[in-house]
Amino acid sequence: MAQTQGNCFICGKTAGKTAIKNHILKEHNGGGESCCLIKAEGAYNKDYWLYFSVPADARLSAVDGFLRNIWCECCGHLSAFRLGGGEFGKSRKLSSLCAGNTLLYEYDFGSTTEILVTVVDEISRPAQREKARLLARNVPPPEECVKCGAPATQINALEGEALCDKCAESVEDDAALLPVVNSPRYGECAYDGELDKWTFDPSGPFPQPSEAPAKRRRGMFRSAG
Ligand SMILES: [Zn+2]
Ligand SMILES: [Zn+2]
Ligand SMILES: [Zn+2]
Question: For residue 68, which ligand has an atom nearest its CA?
């Protein structure tokens, strides 16, 4: 299957998941703050993916907060990071991970959403106010109404069926309907994407390039074993 395309939120470029990663490391690597470039993707549906930067001295709790806002939060469920079978505490710093480490992030231990969080590389970025800054995100995958084939806008969470507005009218239990949203958690519990403020706008505005030329610095991570 073709990789889902995604958008660079810094300059607006559209490309596949791997191409966007290389693009970010090449074109948007420069600034005063040592950060980790993080990839998040649905553990089961990798059409949903994100790249974001987080300062290396920030804690995993910053990643937890960001994933909740963009992809997960519905009822304040518990969440956890795991590495190699054991829990990796949220108070740990990102700098205690190695490039190449992949954590499993679980949100909600009832109807669990599982997300793979990979430390891709170190990157330097202009100082950022937010702990986590979105750099790129998949284009919403097309979803078809199971009844008529029109673009789906809602999920009947009881049946796990994607529906268009018209076909959704015939669902008797309104409460079963959830909106189709750009997240691996869509259709779960009461998730409606309420806190997701990161919708790509192809018209920008994109900041003009004013960043210092890319300067790679080695040695932030311990060497990946
Ligand atoms: Zn870009
Ligand atoms: Zn919930
Ligand atoms: Zn329909």
Answer: 2
